[in-house]
């Protein structure tokens, strides 16, 4: 009788394990199917332990296999050592593999100066290639890449290609510059500007001001195509919690890039025009 009970228990455990395996298989299958259907992958960048880069300018570059920059994120005056950036429709599926090159202006020169020299006399830069096998801190979840970056000193010169050969690193696309006026009510708080290509919905630029001032210019160079319509959105962190939520005020405007890119102004003293959307 005892043997029979053990046999039944063994069958039950086996069936349960098989069920879990099937569930996991279907979940992986669903995520793979979702990835196959997308044109652009979302991208999430979560940074931790960035104490040595507080108050610096930080940039993320999406670079294609021809070493051309296709999109950028600029984060000015980083106020906290841990932060998160959510970038919808950031990585094209076609013409990969793409890489994420990111750097902090550690010597405060206002430009990328490479990684040679004393620890405080150079910039700090890193790279992650979005190709199998993915780096340890990158994972693909459905149609979203997630990079969980724990600060380290394993620097990579982003003005080199994947083989280590020097590349110019110069911008090949056009600049975006938006003068943000009337930000006084959010002085010292976060204000974010996003630039989305209207035709595709692709995010090509994000500018985050860690501590907004009454008036400043949100600049992201080398991200626009000529004669292309873009939707510009601005969101202010009204409650100062370091995150953007649907309840935070936002403003939107439509602009078309010229041969010189986009140079425009927005006044946050006007009434908000639209909800900001989901938290990020």
How would you describe this protein?
The protein is globular and about 50 Å long. The chain folds into 3 domains: 37 residues; 111 residues; 102 residues, Immunoglobulin-like (Sandwich), CATH 2.60.40.2580. A 9-stranded mixed beta sheet has the order 6-5-2-3-11-10-13-14-16, with no helix packed on it. The chain has a 4-stranded mixed beta sheet with strand order 4-1-8-7, with no helix packed on it. The chain is mainly β and 280 residues long.
Report a brief summary of the structure.
The protein has 280 residues and is mainly β. It has one helix and 16 strands. The longest helix has 36 residues, at 2-37.
Question: Would you spell out the secondary-structure blueprint of this structure?
Answer:
Blueprint (H helix, E strand, L loop, with lengths): L1 H36 L2 E9 L9 E6 L5 E8 L6 E10 L6 E6 L19 E6 L8 E4 L2 E7 L23 E8 L9 E7 L5 E7 L6 E9 L4 E8 L12 E8 L5 E6 L6 E2 L5
Parallel strand pairs: 1-8, 3-11, 9-15
Antiparallel strand pairs: 1-4, 2-3, 2-5, 5-6, 7-8, 9-12, 10-11, 10-13, 13-14, 14-16
Features:
280 residues; 13% helix; 40% strand; single chain; disordered N terminus; 9-stranded mixed beta sheet; 4-stranded mixed beta sheet; mainly beta; 1 helix; Immunoglobulin-like
Count of discrete alpha- or pi-helical segments spanning 4 or more residues: 1
The radius of gyration is 22 Å
| Terminal residue distance | 59 Å
Shape: globular
- Overall helicity: 10-25%
Q: Give the helix/strand class.
A: mainly beta
Q: How can the largest sheet be summarized? A: 9 strands, mixed
Average pLDDT works out at 89
Number of domains: 3
Biggest sheet strand order reads 6-5-2-3-11-10-13-14-16
Number of strands: 16
Q: Flag low-confidence runs.
A: 1-17, 276-280
Secondary-structure element series: HEEEEEEEEEEEEEEEE
């Amino acid at each position: 009788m005892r043997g029979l009970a053990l046999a039944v228990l063994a069958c039950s455990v086996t069936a349960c394990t098989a069920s879990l395996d099937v569930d996991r298989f279907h979940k992986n299958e669903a995520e793979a199917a979702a990835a196959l259907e997308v044109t652009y992958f979302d991208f999430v960048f979560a940074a931790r332990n960035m104490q040595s880069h507080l108050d610096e300018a930080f940039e993320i570059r999406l670079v294609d296999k021809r070493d051309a920059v296709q999109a950028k994120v600029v984060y000015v005056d980083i106020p906290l050592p841990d932060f998160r950036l959510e970038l919808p429709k950031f990585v094209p599926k076609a013409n990969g593999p793409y890489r994420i090159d990111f750097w902090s202006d550690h010597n405060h020169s206002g430009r990328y100066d490479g990684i040679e020299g004393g620890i405080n006399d150079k910039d700090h830069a890193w790279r992650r290639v979005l190709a199998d096998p993915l780096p340890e801190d990158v994972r693909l979840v459905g149609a979203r890449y997630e990079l969980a970056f724990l600060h380290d000193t394993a620097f990579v010169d982003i003005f080199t290609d994947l083989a280590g050969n020097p590349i110019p690193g110069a911008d090949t696309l056009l600049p975006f510059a938006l003068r943000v006026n009337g930000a006084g009510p959010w002085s010292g708080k976060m204000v974010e500007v996003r630039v989305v290509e209207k035709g595709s919905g692709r995010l090509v630029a994000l500018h985050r001001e860690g501590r907004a001032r009454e008036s400043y210019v949100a600049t992201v160079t080398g991200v626009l195509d000529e004669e292309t319509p873009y939707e510009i959105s601005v969101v202010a962190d009204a409650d100062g919690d370091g995150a953007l939520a649907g309840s935070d005020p936002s403003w939107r405007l439509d602009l078309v890039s010229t041969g010189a890119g986009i140079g425009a102004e927005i006044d946050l003293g006007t009434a908000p025009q639209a909800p900001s959307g989901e938290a990020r």
